[in-house]
Amino acid sequence: MAQLWGGRFTKETDKLVYQFNASIEFDKTLFYQDIEGSLAHSAMLCKQGIITDTDKEAIEKGLKSILKDVSSGELQITDEYEDIHSFVEANLIKRIGEPGKKLHTGRSRNDQVALDMRLFVRKEVLLLDGLIKDLLETLLNLMEEHLETYMPGFTHLQKAQPVTLSHHLGAYFEMFKRDRLRLRDIYKRMNYCPLGSGALAGTTYPLDREYTANKMGFIAPTLNSMDGVSDRDYVIEFLSALSTIMMHLSRFSEEIIIWNSNEYSFVELDDAFSTGSSIMPQKKNPDIAELVRGKTGRVYGSLFSLLTIMKGLPLAYNKDMQEDKEGTFDAIATTKDCVLLFTGMLQTIKFNKQVMEKSAMMGFTNATDAADYLVNKGMAFRDAHSVIGQLVLTCIEKQKSIEELTLSELKEISVVFEEDIYQAVSLKTCVERRTTIGAPGKEAMEMVIRMHKEYLAD
Hints:
Elements lengths: L14 H7 L2 H4 L3 H17 L5 H20 L11 H13 L12 H37 L4 E6 L2 E7 H26 L1 E2 L15 H7 L4 E2 L3 H6 L2 H28 L6 E2 L18 H24 L14 H24 L1 E2 L1 H10 L4 H10 L4 H18 L8 H7 L7 H4 L2 H6 L9 H16 L1
Helix pairs in contact: 3-4, 3-6, 3-8, 4-5, 6-7, 6-12, 6-19, 7-10, 10-11, 10-12, 11-12, 14-15
């Protein structure tokens, strides 16, 4: 059992206690970050005259050889070691001898793991940002393609007013755009270096914390050593952002699932993103959308778990914080997979335009516009509202849309109706008249799409 702290103890740790305490099975994920931090720390120790140039060169050569051998598979990270830090240090000492024992000068595992976790999360924030950008570009392409694809807009899952598919997809564009803004905010807030905080009270060695922070691309060192080793706010913020991303994906998935049903038939999913039934040969199931919806709860669980872990911890570091990793690693991997698969599903999806348009017509989504027509003819809105209510009842009885009623049938309800009612309540007119920014009219949507293109190109 490779441990870094055995000097004070007179007998070995119980094997079960050791296994319970060890974190190598999951914190080996931080291997590259541990090497990166160690290289920066070694360079700083040499710069400050704490170790010699010869020691620094030996340490760097040893660390890079470990990195190379692990990357190639020649060296395996095994549970012989308690954690990733003891794995790196033990193998370094094995390779270069005495100089390897000097690497840990002026640092603790507390600030070491705090650094590794920040470096890892920082990298993952950027990777996820790129995946969401790809999703936004896919959405924007669909928005351009479907500027005149008419469909019902819903409230309470009831058909309400006509919109376009472009406008509907644009709502999700706004959601995922906000997700990117959240990720960038998190990146800025977390980009401070805890290395040099020591166990909790800094160190007596003359460290240059600004140097190590700058060397690893941080804005500056953290300003309180106790907070430096015990802060996990950035992980909680990231998990919260992941949960919000998953919530948006889940809402979108729910709509895809509904639209894919026989009752709606708004979409047809590509075979590559669907599965069949083991017993019912006619089935084509939206499994990807359903799994994204289901995995949202998994990501939420990681957030709630860490919030619960942190809520009662006194300063500074406590072993409870070891539990920040497994859930976070799982939530990151889950969210990245979901964004990637959802983007692929959208890139191959087929929208049934005629079905969507007919659904908008038969759902009386143009009823509000019919009322506005009467108002423009001089009728009070409250009276117009009542007239159109009677009109809808007539349509239901005759199983017709408003446009399918003859002018004489319309006049039986109100003499105010004229031939121009058909133009006034066409889906195209209903949508195109809504020209204010943020509305579904083509002119307004084209303006928004131009703005989105500029945003993505920035």
